[in-house]
Amino acid sequence: MTEVWLHSNRRILLLAMVPVAALGGIGLAVQKGNWLSLPGVLGAGCLGISVLLLAGLTRQIVQPRIAYLDGNVLFFLSSGGPIVVPAKVVEAFFQGESLAHLPGESRHQAKSVNLIARLSQRETDWQQRDVKPALGRWADGYVTIRGTWCEPITGDVIRRLNRRLGEVTRAEPAKVESTAGS
Fold first, then answer.
1. What's the confidence (pLDDT) of residue 138?
2. Residue 26 belongs to what domain range?
3. Same structural domain, 74 and 159
4. Using CA atoms, how far apart are residues 101 and 84, in angstroms rounded to an integer?
5. Both 98 and 175 in a single domain?
6. Residues 154 and 72 occupy one common structural domain
């Protein structure tokens, strides 16, 4: 079973659902079961778009940013599935800061607290990956997860991530030894 290590920013995603749900409500009110008139068709279109957007936002709410499964750390930073990295490649998590990368870019953009995962420099296959720029950056063996799109990054969160990473990486050699001795 997948173990969630870092959640998405549920507050901002729930906030994004409000106007989408309002669009659906307006579409439903305009449509009123009248499929053959122009307002009815437009209302049904608004309702349909709203349902699709709500489904996408709901998927984002339940999808973590970082998870763990069977000796692998899963980074959800792209549109497709997760980027699966062996836990032994991830060395540590720490806090960083960068521009928030919010829509409507301005000259004086806000900064966000980010989570950074350092990957082993010896594992050259993991040094670079393409990720969605709004969610983070993956370059030179560092995975940056923008704090705007995940749960708040605090000292407690970083300690929890590093403690859990240590537990799973120490457990892996023990698991290998126990299966080898059988």
1. 95
2. 10-62
3. yes
4. 25
5. yes
6. yes
Task: Identify whether the C-beta of residue 29 lies closer than 8 Å to the C-beta of residue 86.
Answer: no
* Domain co-membership, 77 together with 135: yes
Residues of the chain with pLDDT under 50: 176, 180
Contact residues for 116 (Cβ-Cβ < 8 A; gap 6+): 93, 94, 95, 96, 142, 143, 144, 145
- For 84-112, b/e burial (b = at least 16 CB within 10 A) is ebebbbbeebeeeebebbeeeeeeeeeeb
Query: Tokens representing 2?
Result: 């997948």
DSSP state of 104: S
* pTM score: 0.78
Give 4-47 pLDDT, tens digit per residue: 999 998 888 888 899 999 999 988 888 877 777 888 888 889 99
* 167 and 83 together in one domain: yes
Claim to verify: residue 23 and residue 104 sit in the same structural domain: no
127 within 8 A of 141, measured Cβ to Cβ:
yes
- Rounded to a whole number, what is the largest CA-CA distance in the chain? 74
